[in-house]
């Protein structure tokens, strides 16, 4: 992550806040995945409470507009209406105007790591590791094949993979509607 740039960086709000319900805190990161054609980039947006991957985008570049596509998917998949925090590293993509505007438009408060400490975005890093070590196990021929593998992997991860930290429930089981939370009103 290149965090030595001129763009605005936000304080790490997760030092004082812990998620207690779905969609209160989103964590994001970008990881690389290789095919026979070369390196591709997988952007993920994950709900910190349920560990559910809410949005993703696989691309050939690490452009801010590609990372915004993962955020757009996460926003489209939201179920609850309450204030939220978005936590990421200080990469150019997350500090970019297009990403910050998307957060602002959706009343999501930005939070970022203090610097190069990957432990300050540990959950996002852990999700990357799970996908790469348990699901994306072979080198695909091209990005189209990889895209299908990523889609299937995220479905299985969200729907079927239990987590010890979730009392052996799956991310989707934990994320399902909580009667205490106010659902989003769709127009």
Descriptive report:
The protein has a single domain (13-173), classed as Ribonuclease H-like superfamily/Ribonuclease H (Nucleotidyltransferase, domain 5, 2-Layer Sandwich). The model has no long low-confidence stretch (mean pLDDT 90). It has helices at residues 64-76, 92-95, 97-105, 122-135, 143-160, 171-175, and strands at 25-35, 38-47, 53-59, 84-88, 108-112. The radius of gyration is 16 Å and the shape is globular. A five-stranded mixed β-sheet has the order 3-2-1-4-5, sandwiched between helices. It is built from six helices and five strands; from the N terminus they run βββαβααβααα.
Task: State the main characteristics.
6 helices, 187 residues, 34% helix, Nucleotidyltransferase, domain 5, 20% strand, five-stranded mixed sheet, alpha/beta
Topology (SSEs and partners):
Layout: E1 25-35, E2 38-47, E3 53-59, H1 64-76, E4 84-88, H2 92-95, H3 97-105, E5 108-112, H4 122-135, H5 143-160, H6 171-175
Parallel strand pairs: 1-4, 4-5
Antiparallel strand pairs: 1-2, 2-3
